[in-house]
Amino acid sequence: MKSGFVSVIGRTNAGKSTLVNSLLGEKIALVSHKRNATRRKINAIVMHDDKQIIFIDTPGLHKSDKLFNQSLIESAKKSIKDCDIVLFVVSVKDSTKDYEDFLAFHKDVKHVLVINKVDLEDKKYLLDKIQEYAKFDKYFQALIPFSCKKKAYKNILLDELCKHLNYDHYFYDTDILSSSSQRDIYREFILEALFESFADELPYSSDVIINEVKNKNDILHISANLITDTQAHKKILIGKNAEALKRIGIKARKKIEKFASCKVNLELFVLVKKAWTKDKQFLEKILR
């Protein structure tokens, strides 16, 4: 019996959330091709034989002068200090620059380096990429290729991480998938549906606040606010005859029903909070 915490770190769009969902075998973390989609730390609890691994999915590392983005970056950096080992994720298509930037500040942090999305390239390309990272072998504990589409990689990665777990007891019941609250997970699904519904920059000025969650007559009732920063964006989120808001609601409801395995009644409202991405107190409230 062993357990421990693993912080999943890497640049935006490296596939961290997809990797965590794949290891868990259940979708709980928001997945989007848009940058900075992950805004809050979501914990996934994976049982591997008699080992319990608590993965902390974090916002992507990137450079920005904006207060909102800096809040995300600080959240990711803090998680590095709160774990037994870091799982640093890079895409197979990335150069080594992001990893070198990580080493510039955290070279003494114990970590496993994962080259993700290896199914996107042929074997020769992958071998060349591994050689590029191999020159940093004095810093990482292991270098592991990974593909969410190929289960063979899963056990190799979990076996390696289990070597670095530091506790001789479980932190959570073995049948729990996440230590994050259900409200947080529902919020992730709603935000993901919002991201999927708009192709432009609108999602970056929007977020979700859960107002109420209650179960009545075997139906899960959820009320949530979509927060955006201008009246113009509010009109877009609602759409003509409320079609856009209905589309977000339908997508989110289906995601939540699949996860919760019950019927869901979802009510969405759109509120304007001007310059919310620059409001430090508000950011601390919704990103905690």
Could you walk me through the main structural features you see in this protein, from its secondary elements to its overall organization?
The chain is of the alpha/beta class and 288 residues long. The protein has two domains: 162 residues, Rossmann fold (3-Layer(aba) Sandwich), CATH 3.40.50.300; 106 residues, GMP Synthetase, Chain A, domain 3 (2-Layer Sandwich), CATH 3.30.300.20. 37% of the residues lie in helices and 24% in strands. It contains nine helices and nine strands. The strands form two sheets. Strands 2-3-1-4-5-6 form a six-stranded mixed sheet, sandwiched between helices. Helix 6 packs across helix 8.
CATH fold category name of the largest domain = Rossmann fold
Q: Regarding CATH, which class of the largest domain?
A: Alpha Beta
The quaternary structure here is single chain
Tally of DSSP helical segments: 9
Q: Would you list the SSEs in sequence order as H and E?
A: EHEEHEHEHEHHEEHHEH
CATH architectural name of the largest domain: 3-Layer(aba) Sandwich
Order of strands across the main sheet: 2-3-1-4-5-6
Unreliable runs: none
> CATH superfamily assignment of the largest domain?
P-loop containing nucleotide triphosphate hydrolases
Query: What's the domain count?
Result: 2
The end-to-end span amounts to: 31 Å
Largest sheet: 6 strands, mixed
Beta fraction: 15-25%
Region (G3): 57-60
Region (G5): 146-148
Keywords: Cell membrane, Cytoplasm, GTP-binding, Membrane, Nucleotide-binding, Ribosome biogenesis, RNA-binding, rRNA-binding
Region (G2): 36-40
